[in-house]
Design goal:
The structure is a homodimer. The relative contact order of chain A is 0.23. A 6-stranded antiparallel sheet of chain A has the order 1-7-8-4-3-5, with helices on both faces. A two-stranded antiparallel ribbon of chain A has the order 2-6. By secondary structure, chain A is of the alpha+beta class. Chain A contains 5 helices and 8 strands. The interface between A and B is medium-sized, with 32 and 29 residues. Chain A binds a DNA duplex through loops.
Amino acid sequence: MALFLSTHTNKVDAKGRVSIPAVFRSALVQDAFQGVVLIPSRRVPALEGFAMGMMQSLSERFDRFDLFSASDSDLESMAFFGDAVPLSFDETGRVGLTKELLAHAGITENAVFVGLGTKFQIWEPKAYAKRHQESLKKMQGTAT
Amino acid sequence: MALFLSTHTNKVDAKGRVSIPAVFRSALVQDAFQGVVLIPSRRVPALEGFAMGMMQSLSERFDRFDLFSASDSDLESMAFFGDAVPLSFDETGRVGLTKELLAHAGITENAVFVGLGTKFQIWEPKAYAKRHQESLKKMQGTAT
DNA sequence: TGACGTCCCATGAAATCCCATGTTATTCCA
DNA sequence: TGGAATAACATGGGATTTCATGGGACGTCA
C-alpha cells in the first residue's frame, strides 16, 4: 500500500471545500470508493484521514466478536465508526468538510496535510506549527 | 458491503415518520427489499438497524450453531427475530416508526442515527450524547 | 365515524456537479 | 541544457440536483 508522506498546505473555500493533495489522493483510492474517511482525533485538535479499505478491515475485525455477546464492542465502534465521515472527491479532487470537522480542528482558511505513513492528519496551520516545534524538540539529539 | 459511517440527526414528525439518512439508505438497499430492519436493542435504549441481507446471514449463523449445541439459541433467536420490524421506505426515503420502537428508545422529536460499521443505531438525542461520552472515555488513549 | 396508516405533492436549504482560470510542475525538442 | 509547449493541479464561482421535512388527500380497519 502506498504511504502518506510529506506536508502540504491547501486553501479551504467559503463552502468548506479543500483539495486533497494529489499524492495523497492516489494513495487513498484502492477500491470502489473514490474518497477519504476523516475522523476527529481524540488526542489532538486535528483530523485523521484513512482509506475506506482501512475502515472495512477494521469492521471485519469487530464482526468476529459476534453481535450478541455482552462485549463492549458497540461502545468502541461508536467512537470510531460513528465519528467517521466518508467524503467523496469531486471531479477536481476536493472534498467538502463538515462544520463539525472544521470546528474540531479549528480550521478556517487553510489546512495543513501531514503524512504519517498509513494515515495522515489535517491541521489548522498555527496549531500545526506549534505542534511541529514541540516534536522537533523531542527529537533533539536523536540520529536522523 | 458498504459500511454505515458517521452520525446524522433527523426529525420525527407527528406521524412518527423519519427520514433514513440518504447515505445509510444506499447501504441498506442491496437486494429486493426497499427498506430497513429495526430491532429494539436488548442492552441499551436504542434501536438497531440492519439491511435485510444482513438478517439472512445472521439467520444462517444461528442455524449452524443449532446443529452442535443444545443451547439457548432458540430463545435468543426468537427474541431477536421476533422483535425485528421490517420497514419499507416511502418515496422520499422515510419510514414510519411504530409506537413500540419509539417507546423503547424514548424518541419523541428527534432521532440520532449512528453508524457502527455493519449496522447502525437510532437514539434519542440526549441519551446519545451521554452514550457518546462514555464511548469516548472508553477509547481514551487509543490511536486516532 | 374516528383513529390510523399510506400515498402524493410542495418547498427551502444544503450538498454536489460543472465549467473557467491561474499557477506550478513536467515533458519534449532543438 | 535552455526554453518553449504541454500537462497536472489547486482554486473560484455559478448552476443544478438531492435531501429532509411539512401538509393534505385518500383508503382502511376496528
